[in-house]
Amino acid sequence: MKLDVLKPWETFKGMSYGDWSSIWTNWLLSSEVDTYNGEDILFLRGNINYKPTSSIPGSLRHQDPDDFLDKRGDRGYKVIEGTAVLIPITVAYYTIGDTFGGKTIENELQLRKAVNSDFNLIRTMWAVIKSSNSKSSCKIVPKLTLYKMESPLFRLRVPSNSMLNEFQDEPMKPGSYHAVVGGYFILVKSLPESRYRITFGAEGPGDYSTRSIYDIEVFHSTPKITKDVSGRIGQTSTQFL
């Protein structure tokens, strides 16, 4: 299956992978994550489901390594042909004021060092797709490691009604932060009309793992011919002059 995937050095709608990743991160922590209203790009996400190990405030948080984000069947999405799909294989972001290596991050250079340190410890990652008329899954891109990117320094806003913030390994206080996000992203510019299953995820560093399965149905939208009724409107509206 040959897909129209944005190359790492290209832009889509005038924005690079780094630009799109900063928009995606704000979406991830918004109150409308997982809501799709027919926009021309569909954001996917990894599994975020950390829970405290005890009722003691500040206790360690843990996510079942066998857990995964299940967006199959009725949980999936329907989009029109031509809709782009942004797939975050594995992602890390830090903000100024976070702690990394026992020290407080104070500037952009330290932000980028923290982000890249996480990605040096990834053990495995994958991103495959299967259409309804194919017998098996195939790679979305031949070599995922070519799709590593970093965002510009951007403003990350965490609302008080964020849907996923409380399920992160380290929930954030609502507010506005200077942040950098990095990771492996794939942007599929469009998918031909069909039904698809996209599976992606990663393992490492440490016990970290994420896995997501999405069903996406792409349907063809027949364009309608717009009628010009200017003459009719002009004739019936003269009484108001």
Task: Give a verbal description of the structure.
The chain is mostly beta strands and 241 residues long. The protein has one domain. It has 3 helices and 16 strands. It has helices spanning 17-28, 108-119, 230-236; strands at residues 4-5, 41-43, 51-52, 61-62, 69-71, 77-80, 84-95, 99-100, 103-104, 124-131, 138-139, 148-150, 154-158, 175-190, 194-203, 209-219. The strands form 4 sheets. Strands 1, 2, 7, 12, 13 and 14 form a 6-stranded mixed sheet that branches. Strands 5, 6, 10, 11, 15 and 16 form a 6-stranded mixed sheet that branches. The mean pLDDT is 88.
Report how far apart the termini are.
61 Å
Sheet with the most strands, sense and barrel status:
6 strands, mixed
- β-strand percent reads 35-45%
Number of domain units? 1
The general outline is: globular
What are the secondary-structure elements, in order, as H or E? EHEEEEEEEEHEEEEEEEH
Keywords:
single chain, 241 residues, mainly beta, six-stranded mixed β-sheet, 16 strands
Brief account:
With 241 residues, the protein is mostly beta strands.
